[in-house]
Amino acid sequence: MTDFDKMSRRSFLSISGKAGLSTLVASAVGTNFGMVSVAEAAMGKGKVTPFRFAIMTDGHLFSHPDHKFDALMAKAVDDCNNMNPKPDFVLYCGDIAQNGLDEQLVKGKNILSKLTMPVKYIPGEHDWYLDMGAAWRGHFGPDVWSFDHKGVHFIGMNSILVKDFWTPAGMSAKERMGTMEMLESPIAGPWGVHEKTLAWLKKDVANLPSDTPVVTFTHGPLWDYYPRWNFQTKDAPEIREILSKFERVMSFHGHVHQTIYNKIGNMGSCGTMSTSWPWPYPDVKLAYPQSQMNRSDPGAFEDGEGSQYIDLEGGFEGSMHYNPFGDMLTPFMKNGFKI
Amino acid sequence: MINTKNVLMGLVAPVALLGLLAANPAAAREPFTKAELADQNAARLAAVDHGRDLWHGSLGSMQSNGLACGNCHPDAAASNPQTFPKFQADLGKVIPLRDMINWCIMVPQAGTALDVNGDDMVAMEAYAFALYTGKAITPGLATKQTTGINVGSGVGYPKKGSGVGYDTEK
């Protein structure tokens, strides 16, 4: 049993958060839930019990009833539920909603409630900027968290924070949201996790030994892929520096709506397929061009979307498997690839 | 048989035209004055600007499901206007860009097609082409053709020079 296994989904969401989950888990499992202390959760790459987790992202649900994106999100839910072996949990990498409306978040929450395993969430910019995350936090809990599962340390961070551009411009909440909705808008500028979360991250990993397997989740990539479309995280260099003490870090992100792999130092980074639409690949020279999926057919609305799962082995070997609705994968990705 | 009258006229006419030009320097001026060129460029940019708004959802009839062209084609990426007319598999024929635009409006966006000869369609094309000016005409994989030209404040079409953001953060 691990931290994650031992908690119900509801209790897990209620205790994990920015205050530092390692500490919270220790107290929560020891007191509130009658579970073993965190000291029993053995960490280190030799201690990993093989397991699978899945990632869903970027549903971009509209308010329209029976919208086609509702069905695509539900299809990914079915895919995750029918995986064999089943994922231990699902990570949702942001942008459940398109316009940040509560009704859109509620719709997503209802669809995702059909998952038969626990779910953890981080926000995307489409979830956040109508009410600065108030509705999102109400539904999905803290936007920064960590937890341990079967010897692996998982970290989720809200990475879509931008400087206040709306107050000087006298924008309404709706105008602010509209500005953030447009991928190529030059107004908002580059987003990131900002100082407070960097300080939290430093503290969160301070006492972890360097052979601890670490997995991170952010909405945008932790490398400069294509900053014009915010295919970046402004403070990614600081994040990578904080995590540089670890032998290996796996980073997963949403936002790019496409398959993409990169590696910087000890960090392997994977983009994820959305359940809404695929973004085009920007004209960027990639270290792993074979991780670009095939061009989607705009006439086939399921083409270019899907979910993904990761199988972690005992020595913290990870294999990334994209799980597209259509036939999108290059030979490099067909049977999964090592991260 | 050579028509000597036609040959003679062919020689005389250009010479006469040159004589006229020499006698009337005003006729040899640039086709347009700077002010005229400025007006024309402003009109073109107004069309591009309007196209940019349409591309991002300013006309409600272009969709019934919330989607705009910019959802799949940020900065007009992967629209490849310079590759049209080309074969469109769903329609089974070679079509111009405006027909492709209307296909996207009607199918993925479930909206009402634009008048193919209307100002809105011209604006849509003006926006798409503005981002591809100078690109080689090389039909093929969209992934090879997804980036616009470099303009003053970054890659793509700057609606407003905001002075903030990553465009200026080099």
Give the structure's gist in a few sentences:
Chain A contains twelve helices and twelve strands. Chain A has 339 residues and is of the alpha/beta class.
Can you tell me about this structure?
The complex is a heterodimer of chains A (339) and B (170). Chain A is an alpha/beta fold. Chain A contains 12 helices and 12 strands. The two termini of chain A are 26 Å apart. With 170 residues, chain B is mainly alpha-helical. In chain B, 40% of the residues lie in helices and 6% in strands. In chain B, the strands form 2 sheets. In chain B, strands 1-2 form a two-stranded antiparallel sheet. Chain B has a two-stranded antiparallel ribbon with strand order 3-4. The longest helix of chain B is centred in the N-terminal third of the chain and has 22 residues, at 34-55. Chain B is globular. The termini of chain B are far apart.
CATH topology of one domain in chain B: Cytochrome Bc1 Complex, Chain D, domain 2
Estimated helix fraction of chain A: 25-40%
What's the CATH first level of one domain in chain B?
A: Mainly Alpha
Structural class of chain B: mainly alpha
Helices, strands, pairings?
The complex is a heterodimer of chains A (339) and B (170).
Chain A: H1 3-6, H2 9-15, H3 21-32, E1 51-56, H4 68-81, E2 90-92, H5 102-112, E3 119-121, H6 125-128, H7 134-140, E4 145-149, E5 152-156, H8 166-169, H9 173-181, H10 194-205, E6 214-218, H11 236-242, E7 249-253, E8 261-264, E9 267-271, E10 306-312, E11 318-324, H12 331-334, E12 337-338
Parallel strand pairs in A: 1-2, 2-3, 5-6, 6-7, 7-9
Antiparallel strand pairs in A: 1-10, 4-5, 8-9, 10-11, 11-12
Chain B: H1 4-23, H2 34-55, H3 69-72, E1 86-88, E2 93-95, H4 97-106, H5 119-130, E3 150-151, E4 154-155
Antiparallel strand pairs in B: 1-2, 3-4
Helix pairs in contact in B: 2-5
